[in-house]
Amino acid sequence: MSNMQFEIRKAVPTDLEKLQILALETFFESFSSGASVNDIQTYLQNEMTLTKLENEFHQPNTIFLIMIDKQTNNFIGYTKFNIVNEYWGIMANGLLEIERLYILSAFQSKGLGYKLIQEAVRFAESNAISQIVLSVYDKNPRGIKFYQKNEFNVVTEHSFMLGDDKRNCLVMLKQL
Fold this sequence. Notes:
The chain has 176 residues and is an alpha+beta fold. It has one domain (6-175): Aminopeptidase, CATH 3.40.630. It contains 5 helices and 7 strands; from the N terminus they run βαααβββαβαββ. It has helices spanning 16-31, 37-47, 50-57, 112-126, 141-149; strands at residues 6-10, 62-69, 75-87, 90-103, 131-137, 153-162, 165-175. It has a 7-stranded mixed β-sheet with strand order 1-2-3-4-5-7-6, with helices on both faces. The longest helix is centred in the N-terminal third of the chain and has 16 residues, at 16-31.
C-alpha cells in the first residue's frame, strides 16, 4: 500500500448522514452495471434511506465500521457486520455475517478491503465466533477473487431482486 493514511473506527450516530452518502455511492458503483437506471433508483430510494440506515445502526448485534482518509477526513469505505445464528442455510451458534463491505472505486486495490476483513476477523475472534459468512454478486469476479484470496470459499448461492432484475449471489464462508 502507498503512504496513504487512514483510520478505521466504529461508526457513531453523527456519522450516519455521511455514511448514507458513501453507501449510496458504493452501492451504485458496485451494482449499476447491467441494471436499469429505474431499478437502481427504486432500490436506493427504498433500501438505502437515512431512516433505514438509522434503524440498522441501532439493531443489537450489528456493527458498522467506517474507513476515513486521514488527509481529507472523507469516508472512503465501510463494513457492516451482524452476529447471526443462520445464514442461507448455514447454521451455527454465532456466525459473523459481513453484510456490506465497500470501498470507493478510487481507493480499491490499495489493500484497504483486506484491512476491513482483518477487523471482521478480529471482532469474530474476540467474540468466540469461528465462522464468517457473506454474499457476493456472481457477476463481480473482482470481489469473488478478493474474498477467495482472503480464504473465503463458496458454499451455496441465493438470489435477490434489484427492481425487476434477479441477481444471483454466491454465499462464501471463512473458517477461523
